[in-house]
Amino acid sequence: MTNTALITGASRGLGLALARTLADAGWRLVLTARGRDDLERAAAELGATAIAGDVTDPAHVERLSLAVPELDLLVNNASGLGVTPLPRLGSYPLEAFKLLLETNVTAPLALTQAVLPALRARRGAVVNITSDAATGAYPGWGGYGATKAALEQLSNVLAAEEPDLAVWWVDPGEMNTRMLADAVGAEEAAAAADPAKVAAALHDLVRSRPAGGRVSLQ
Fold first, then answer.
1. Where are the alpha helices (DSSP H) in 10-141?
2. Per the CATH hierarchy, to which homologous superfamily does domain 4-213 belong?
3. Are 16 and 197 in contact (CB under 8 A)?
4. Which of 59, 101, 152, 193 shows the smallest number of beta carbons within 10 Å?
5. Number of C-alpha atoms within 13 angstroms, CB side, residue 159?
6. Beta-bridge partner residues of 76
């Protein structure tokens, strides 16, 4: 039986690295991201299904759920950084914060709800990608960190409510990605971990299936 994974934010960074790792392990993949060209290149490379779109769009969430009538793994990896340069909370634009909450909290919950029947049928797993900004008080990271803290609590409750599923909220640590470069600069980001190494650790997590909970990979 072939395992099926749905990965959001799969056109670059950790999402793409994890897709490559799972493809090498024989998984069937459904990939989504907003950037159609990059996503379709990734899907062609991996023999995956590409469904481009915005995870905050309910119609797109429905398309994704219809594409995975059988699902073993949902990876809510798509995420927004918010306003850059990163502002302090005292001056954080509230409309921008609402949009960030929609991307980083509401959208993962909506997609999880949409695919829960498929996950339950296969006793599947959910990986929600979080951050140490969810628990640490880092100046400038308050907006982003608050959304990740909310995602962690959603994950925590989901794990309690769905005991037949494995639910992990995973802090991957700093990775050399475009998002980190946007936040701290390209030079500092270049010194961070290779997303491929983090993806390998994530695959080990899924394969070994420990009890659900918060997982720090670095």
1. 13-24, 36-46, 58-67, 94-101, 107-122
2. NAD(P)-binding Rossmann-like Domain (3.40.50.720)
3. no
4. 59
5. 18
6. 128
Is the Cβ–Cβ distance between 103 and 153 less than 8 Å? no
Catalytically active residues are: 144
The Cα–Cα gap between 2 and 173 comes to 30
Q: What are phi and psi of 216, to 5 degrees?
A: -110, 125
Q: Which residue, 28, 34, 64, is CA-closest to 46?
A: 28
Which pLDDT does position 98 carry in this prediction? 98
Q: Which residues of the chain have pLDDT under 50?
A: none
Non-local CB neighbours of 7 within 8 Å, separated by 6+ positions:
15, 18, 19, 22, 29, 30, 31, 32, 75, 77
Strand partners, 29: 5
What's the rounded Cα separation, in Å, for the pair 153 and 130?
Answer: 11
pLDDT in tens, 29-58: 999 999 999 999 999 999 999 999 999 999
Q: Which two tokens stand for residue 191?
A: 């010194």
User: What DSSP state is assigned to residue 9?
Assistant: S
Please give the model's pTM, rounded to 2 decimal places. Answer: 0.96
pLDDT at 155: 98
- Dihedral of the alpha carbons of 62, 68, 69, 74, in degrees to the nearest 10: -100
Measured CA to CA, the distance from residue 183 to residue 32 in angstroms comes to 23
What's the CA gap between 76 and 55, in Å, rounded?
10
